[in-house]
Amino acid sequence: LTALLAFFALALVVYFLQEKKQAPISIDFPDSPVLGKKDAPVAMVFFEDLQCGGCKAFNFEVLPGLRKSYIETGLVRLTIVPLAFLPGSKPLANAALAVYKIAPDRFFPYVDAICHDAKEAQSETAIQQRLINLAKAIGGIDLLEFKSCVMTDCHYSTLEKNFVRAKELMGKEFGTPTLFFNGVSISTDSLQDIDAKIKQAIR
Questions:
Q1: What residues contact residue 29 under an 8 Å CB cut-off, 6+ apart?
Q2: For the whole model, what pTM was predicted?
Q3: Which of 76, 80, 100, 158 is most open to solvent, judged by the fewest CB atoms within 10 Å of its CB?
Q4: How high is the pLDDT of residue 23?
């Protein structure tokens, strides 16, 4: 009887810990890029570092299908929170935010271009010129304003705030890629898993 009671007590502890861990949390990054309708039934928040291999995989393999099937149909609102804690990622995230502020509709094409334009370590000047060249190739971006932002690191303060808030939000689980689905962290591994959760949420 004692063993049985101990088993049920342990089961209850595990259950309540899981419930606490999975309780939806409020996530608000008002300066971050957003794609989708404000009243979409599913709110997703994706934390990425543009030097993160898993983040690039999400952009290449998951995001296109997510945009076509759910964001463009009004079912999902996706917020992208740029982080910059990996070596060499700050100039990339700064440039991406600059594009979002200057020409929001060019943000995702620009991020896609960064992800495809993998380069070995370069000097700061070479990186800045590469980022400017990418913006020129994408088109539709005010290059004078963009270049000024790239040269002055104009969004570094925002990136630092994102980093601090993300660490507070994730705690020991901090890292990228991280995807929140209506306030609960879920896997970024496959569109199929996300697809199942969206269908369950909109029933």
A1: 45, 79, 81, 162, 165
A2: 0.85
A3: 158
A4: 73
